[in-house]
Amino acid sequence: MATPAPARDYYEVLGVPKDADAKAIKDAFRKLALKYHPDRNKEPGAEERFKEIAAAYAVLSDPKKRAEYDSHGFAGVAGFTPEDLFSGINFEDIFGGFDFGLGGGLFERFFGHGGRRHAGPARGANVEVELTVPLARIASGGEEEIRFTRPQVCPACHGTRAAPGTSPRKCDACGGSGRQTRQETRREKQGSVVIQHIGVCPVCGGQGEFIDKPCPSCGGSGSMLTEERLTVNVPVGAEEGMALRIPGKGMPAEEAGGSSGDLYVVVRTAPDPRFERDGPDLWRVESVSVADAALGTELSVPTLDGTAAAKVPPGTQPDTVLRLRGKGLPEFGGRTRGDLYLRLRVHMPEHLTAAQKEAFERLRELEKKGSKSFWR
Fold this sequence. Notes:
Layout: H1 10-14, H2 22-36, H3 46-60, H4 63-72, H5 82-86, H6 91-94, H7 106-111, E1 127-133, H8 135-140, E2 142-153, E3 169-170, E4 179-188, E5 191-200, E6 209-210, E7 223-234, E8 243-246, E9 263-269, E10 276-278, E11 281-289, H9 290-295, E12 297-303, E13 306-312, E14 321-324, E15 340-347, H10 354-368
Parallel strand pairs: 1-9, 11-15
Antiparallel strand pairs: 2-7, 3-6, 4-5, 8-9, 10-11, 12-13, 14-15
Helix pairs in contact: 2-3
């Protein structure tokens, strides 16, 4: 039997010191929860990490619970139920009204609700679609339209699969149940034993009914693939692979009365010829001549907001990286921006003019006399 991993200290979980004030604890929780919430982070272990973060915040954000934890450790808060821990937290306030489904059904989805589960038909499956947006949309946020297809109840037959004006015919062999039951009596030492064999009805194939006239609109399937258009709000600084959840827009339930699954819109960043994205940071390759690398120069480089000047110092070596602070993407859920990194490539001329060749010859002579090379 595997030994469960020991719980981590709540302050360590949130990455705050033990004397952290309420604002620091709240800010740390907000940043980590937005990063690891399973509706947005599909990496393995994200849900368990989110649970750990939420539990740590629930204790440390409440002065009384925090005092019990500081005095007695996990034993001081062991008796609290999920409702005790989370019912007083205003997720809408913490996340500025954009809570990614963190409120509402959080207890039932991730922590249970007093050990109770809702009875009823199973929900439909979730649907996942990708939305590719340019860097400009990541930087500014805003609305984007998505198109996707999913099955919906046929509007002509309303899911009965039979042509309008007709009805399915019940299977007489199984009485409409789709199953047949056969009893067998065996004589044992203790007496007679009745054994029931339940199997799929061979007459109707388990359907329980026959469709004499299939619905021409859906071909007798009871559902139709329908294209839908939705407008989603891409948040400022949306992370690569972020999943935005839209409740009820997934697959319909297979059983009558069941609710539809959810739609997950996974945000992807479109390729940009100017930059490569690395989280909130951007990278770009710039070429400089041998002379500019040796003597220094100033480059005018593109940014998301126009252009910016970048100083190349004298004696710059190949693959030197320059950083332009705050010229990257906005950090999701934060107030800062990433940086723009420039990787410098020193361009060596392939075909020298006579004047260039003469200049390099003079440079080589100087090196032979002991002068320091600009590329050493």
